[in-house]
Design a protein that fits this description.
The protein is built from 12 helices and 5 strands. By secondary structure, it is of the alpha/beta class. Strand 3, helix 7 and strand 4 form a beta-alpha-beta unit.
Length: 278
């Protein structure tokens, strides 16, 4: 669910008599992504707004209230390390601001959903998502949560916009399929396959049907919904995971040394890094 305000959604749930804990999904409240894309905050007190929304949805245990939009970096031409390092820094910004406002880490961390994009670097994308889970657990652990379950990263991802072609659009079907496969092997909780033509025209019944079928092929014919970390133990992917984790952690620390993600955006550090890679 892509919604900016929970009140209307809560009203529908209550009207239908659905138990809050049975609701799955999330609301894309992410002022840091708005700041990244537009250069200004969405409102006067963005983190206070995040806190209010989080408190309103506290009873919805399986419903995420905060999004960390790593896909913005990917779709702007960042490297895998940059997407991961900056996303972790954004996640910590939310943890710091909300715990400073009096909330407990056990209330905040489980309500965060990371939203990445996956490109065509097949094994690297698998490793990126595995490294993301490892590093986020390491970060949350430092806030002394009540149990390890609080440290689990929730990941939504989508096919990247950055690498799609207008000149031979059918090739985009191949790219989105391998991107979906790498994300699934990497361990996402949910995924969006964009239709092959959505970067240059309004999608039609055919392109949307193909995008749905791409997911069904992996689920019904490859049984990707039945696996947990199939890349675990692969020397090659384990090494890639370690290298990406180390590089992303180094970048994450550079952002922290600048005072956090907001300060790094205001100084232009993030924009300059992504522009150089793109």
């Amino acid at each position: 669910l892509a919604m900016n305000h929970p009140d209307a959604f809560k009203a529908v749930v209550e009207e239908r008599g659905i138990a809050p804990e049975k609701i799955q999904g999330g609301i894309n409240v992410d002022p840091l992504t708005a700041l990244t894309r537009k250069g200004k905050n969405c409102c006067d007190k963005p983190f206070e707004n995040v806190k209010v929304n989080l408190e309103k949805m506290a009873a919805y245990k399986n419903f995420k209230t905060i999004e960390v939009g790593g896909y913005v970096f990917n779709n702007s031409g960042s490297s895998i390390v940059q997407e991961l390092g900056f996303s972790l820094a954004a996640g910590v910004e939310y943890l710091d601001k909300l715990t400073d406002a009096g909330m407990k880490i056990d209330e905040v961390a489980p309500k965060i959903r990371f939203h990445f994009a996956t490109g065509s670097k097949y094994f690297m994308e698998i490793a990126k998502l595995r490294a993301a889970r490892y590093l986020w657990a390491h970060i949350v652990k430092a806030y002394n949560p009540c149990c390890d379950c609080v440290c689990k990263m929730n990941i939504h991802a989508e096919t990247s916009e950055w690498n799609k072609t207008v000149y031979d659009p059918n090739v985009n079907m191949l790219r989105t399929q391998t991107e979906t496969m790498s994300a699934t092997i990497g361990g996402v909780d949910s995924f969006t396959v964009h239709p092959y033509d959505d970067i240059f025209e309004k999608t039609n019944d055919f392109s949307e049907r193909i995008a749905r079928n791409q997911q069904l092929l992996l689920k019904e014919e490859s049984h990707f919904d039945k696996i947990v970390d199939p890349a675990g133990g692969s020397y090659y992917i384990e090494e890639l995971t370690q290298f990406i984790a180390e590089a992303a952690w180094k970048l994450f620390l550079e952002v922290q040394e600048q005072g956090g993600m907001v300060k790094a955006l205001e100084s232009g550090f993030v924009q300059a890094a992504v522009k150089a890679t793109a």
